[in-house]
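re the bet — no i am not wrong, look at it urself. input seq straight from the record:
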Amino acid sequence: MKKSTIIVIAILAVVVIWAISAYNGMVTLEESVSKAWSDVETTYQRRADLIPNLVNTVKGYATHESNTFQEVAAVRAKATQMTIPAEELTEENMRKFSQTMGEMNSALSRLIAISESYPELKASENFSELQAQIEGTENRINEARKKYNASVKDYNIAVRRFPGNIIAGIFGFHKKAEFKSNEGAEIAPEVSF
């Protein structure tokens, strides 16, 4: 074999090895994004599962606050139906998801505020435990969102950075949307009756 043929074969082998490595790296990062998104959805589901217990506990003490209970139940139903497959993590889908979860936060805030009117409820061990569970769940949701956004950042860098963007374009890897809070989320909700 000629020396030039060996050099061309070696260069092609390096390019093929690089392309395989880049592709496998993007697959790994994309799977990390999918796993992180699944964790976000799981923590939201945990919250939705706790809500009926909280509602029933509060309902026992505050029977005349039925509008709030109905709203919480309706928002919970809407939230449990809202899922986004990992391959559809677009800006629009993320905005809709975030908006639905914001409605859930608002409804929960009103429900917790009802407890302020019922001192015997606040003293209830079951209510205190449910409040602690919801607080813990909110913390888990926040952590899951942070991990998701970190995974998306790593993935998006790999998909957009040269020369990886060439492999991404060939194999259909697209930028994923980060989880963003709703507009006005930085303002604490006002609860009034």
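see?? The mean pLDDT is 80. told u. also Helices lie at 3-61, 66-81, 91-116, 119-122, 125-160, 164-171. so pay up
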